[in-house]
Design goal:
The protein is of the alpha/beta class. The chain has helices spanning 26-41, 84-99, 126-132, 137-142, 151-157, 169-173, 228-243, 280-300, 320-329, 343-347, 374-392, and strands spanning 45-48, 54-58, 65-71, 108-113, 175-183, 193-199, 201-210, 214-215, 249-258, 264-265, 268-277, 304-313, 316-317, 335-338, 353-358. It starts with 25 loop residues before the first helix and ends with a helix. Bound molecules: (2S)-amino(hydroxy)ethanoic acid and manganese (II) ion (2 copies).
């Protein structure tokens, strides 16, 4: 039985299907408590750092630690594996190492990062961005969720002190190497376990179109300034722009009209664009093409558009020495790139970092149908145990 079964009932989303577990909401807080209890039951010492990252230590916390872990939050209506698999596999790896009688020479830790998906506050990898200084605490704490609750308010309700949020060189310095195990999110892996080679450059942009709110029945078609028109044009432009750049991807997964009534012409529409490509110039070229199409469509409708870059991260190439060492230690498993972002990708700019992937038979992710077989998940936990043993001896 996998430890994932322990948390199968937490954060079930009956409306969307799958799970909705977001940074510091009740489901994520319940999972954090579950993690603390599970780690303590294994004799690990748990601490919460200044940014709300949970650390479970085997051995005395200190520099040069071998750290594994992932996140417990999900996208809205997400799958069971993206994030939690890296946490449950880490706990299972500790059990396996204990059963082998292994005693690490270097401190070992499991880290759980909050709000990796940005499903509540909009910015992905919030915990690791704060820890590394990639995101300023002022900007982060002012972020709001769909109910208007700020991150500062949410973390205060969770018993954390927002004034302590920000770059944490002490926590970062303790990481000698970081290895995140994750479900693969495409169909790139045809054996149970592989290692990551790189992550696409990617970011999120918010387009706010403003027009004139009015009555759906009483306003003649020629009299309208409807921001939903340029919003629709943006969706089509994103598909066109990304299709024109090899390897690029662009997605509009969230559109929020205000006020949002069936018989109301919206006064504003917020549209979030997620764009990714092999490198920054290609990613930027997609976003520029979408932005000019959006500006042109807004003008045609008598609307305005403002564009905010909510987050951005350049291409990540994982430490080649560590990647090759782990791949060969695991018997020559394949290395593959990914289009998905990870806390490991943020940490990679600061510490030697690697990822293990567990095969995803359909490649579906960020959806309730996300899946990995119990056998492959178990193989992932064994691979992680082998890697932790190898690195911490
Ligand atoms: O959006 C992403 O790529 C990730 O899964 N956080
Ligand atoms: Mn994800
Ligand atoms: Mn993830």
């Amino acid at each position: 039985m996998s430890l994932l079964d322990d948390i199968a009932d937490v954060g079930v989303d009956r409306r969307r299907g799958g799970y909705s577990r977001h940074g510091f909401d009740s489901a994520e807080l319940e999972l954090r408590s579950w993690f603390i209890a599970s780690a303590e039951a294994r004799g690990l010492d748990v601490e919460t750092d200044r940014n709300g990252v949970l650390w479970a230590w085997w051995g005395t916390p200190g520099d040069g630690a071998i750290v594994t872990g992932s996140h417990l939050d999900s996208v809205p209506g997400g799958g069971a594996f993206d994030g939690p698999l890296g946490v449950t596999a880490a706990l299972e790896a500790v059990d396996l190492l204990r059963a082998r009688g292994f005693q690490p020479r270097k401190p070992l830790a499991i880290a759980v990062f909050p709000e990796e998906e940005g499903g509540r506050f909009g910015v992905a990898c919030l915990g690791s961005r704060l820890m590394t200084g990639a995101l300023s605490p002022d900007k982060a704490l002012a972020l709001t969720d769909p109910q208007g609750i700020t991150l500062a308010e949410a973390v205060r309700s969770a018993g954390l002190d927002p004034l302590r949020f920000g770059r944490d060189p002490v926590a970062l310095a303790r990481i000698g190497a970081f290895v995140e195990l994750h479900v693969e999110q495409g169909r790139g892996l045809t054996v149970p376990v592989g290692v990551a080679s790189s992550i696409l450059a990617h970011g999120r942009w918010r387009f706010t179109f403003a027009g004139e709110g009015n009555h759906a029945g009483a306003t003649l078609m020629g009299d309208r300034r409807d921001p939903m028109l340029p919003a629709a044009a943006l969706v089509a432009a994103a598909r066109r722009a990304a299709s024109a750049v090899p390897g690029a991807r662009a997605t509009v997964g969230r559109i929020v009209p205000t006020p949002g009534g069936t018989n109301v012409i919206a006064s504003t529409v917020d549209v979030w664009l997620d764009a990714r490509a092999d490198d920054t110039p290609r990613t930027r070229s997609v976003v520029e093409a979408v932005s000019s199409a959006a500006a042109e469509a807004a003008r045609e409708e008598g609307c305005t558009v403002s564009i905010t870059e909510e987050s951005y991260g350049d291409t990540v190439v994982f430490d080649a020495t560590l990647r090759d060492d782990l791949a060969s230690h695991l018997g020559g498993v394949p290395a593959l790139p990914t289009g998905a972002g990870h806390d490991a990708g943020i940490l990679a700019a600061h510490v030697p970092t690697a990822m293990l992937f567990v095969r995803n038979p359909t490649g579906v992710s960020h959806a309730p149908e996300e899946y990995a077989t119990p056998e492959d998940c178990a193989a992932g936990a064994v691979a992680l145990a082998n890697v932790l043993e190898h690195l911490s001896r």
